[in-house]
Amino acid sequence: MSVPIPFNKSSQQGKELDYIYHTISNGQVSGDQSFSKKCQSLLEDTLGVQKALITTSCTHALEMAAILLKIQPNDEVIIPAFTFVSTANAFVLHGARPIFCDIRPDTLNLDESKLESLITKQTRAIVVVHYAGVGCEMDKILEIANHHGIAVVEDNAHGLFGKYRNRWLGTFGCLATQSFHETKNITCGEGGALLINNEKFIERAEIIREKGTDRTRFFRGQVDKYSWVDVGSSYVMSDILAAFLYGQLEKWQEIQKKRENIWKRYNKELSDWAAQNGVRRPIVPEHCEQAFHMYYLLMPSGECRSKFIAQLKDRDVMAVFHYLPLNSSKFAVQMTEKSWQKFQCPVSEDVADRLVRLPFYSNMSHDDQSRVLEAVLKFDSLT
Ligand SMILES: Cc1ncc(COP(=O)(O)O)c(C=O)c1O
Q1: pTM over cut 0.90
Q2: Who is most buried in 26, 85, 206, 227, counting CB within 10 A?
């Protein structure tokens, strides 16, 4: 038996351990200490966002976005049906109705041609997800959102350091969120960030993140004591994790380059096999510089995908499927049956059934990738 090739494996990329040692030996382990500030400055300087606040997760950054946008019961929030549950839950927690938009068959991003028909007087936000780190059609999405005066939030969990028409993902919406979960390009195990592109949200975001208090202003010496001033929760990341995160963030170019090489090798070496087996490889439009977050394949059918995953597993290669469409999830069906419309999202349903992700992680060795390729190339969809 060979050692299995996992779907994902996090690894040290730089000085993570030194920095963790440093933060503990300096006695600075709570939030907003020196490594948190370094992470935030790096994100602000690199992406050019007005403010970056690191958080305990992307889910929590999305929850902060919902509070900042003052989402109320029965407000409608448009989200792609093909996404992680947090994209919806962060807003549903505040009573919003998720309005599920189908995805484009090419990039698997929210289908902007369907947006207008979903907008009503109750629509308060459009949340986009740059699936696999390939940008959504932001020109059209922003045009529609601006025309109707609706906020755009980018759930950029996959897209850090990707670009759309030469502009960083995470800089289009008034708010954007990042994930530093173990499966992401840059990680600290569990973590996230809120990127703020509209100055009017900065002060309140700092308060929401600090349990509804003006503690951040107090630490800056702007008030002489801090107190309860608004709603909020505990979204501050410990500096131990921030130290880990900074060790990775300062190596972002190297990490992205490694991932680019892995992605391009998969794409090149699977090209003939994919054509012969009716398998579709990822589509990246020319105007998008992707973030190299994952390598997926669209198999000809759901049945074929199950066979493919099983055969790879027999060869100790762990390939996995991805999101189940949220519109047909048990919870969404219960919610929508009781209250409002049902959503037909045929592309999301179809893609969810056929999509498979190959093992993909920053330190994947050439040999391990060869083993994955060998296993994939042995699969014949026609048998
Ligand atoms: C699109 C998307 N949004 C949000 C999340 C949640 O991220 P986190 O685990 O950092 O809360 C994920 C997780 O994978 C995701 O894929």
Answers
A1: yes
A2: 206
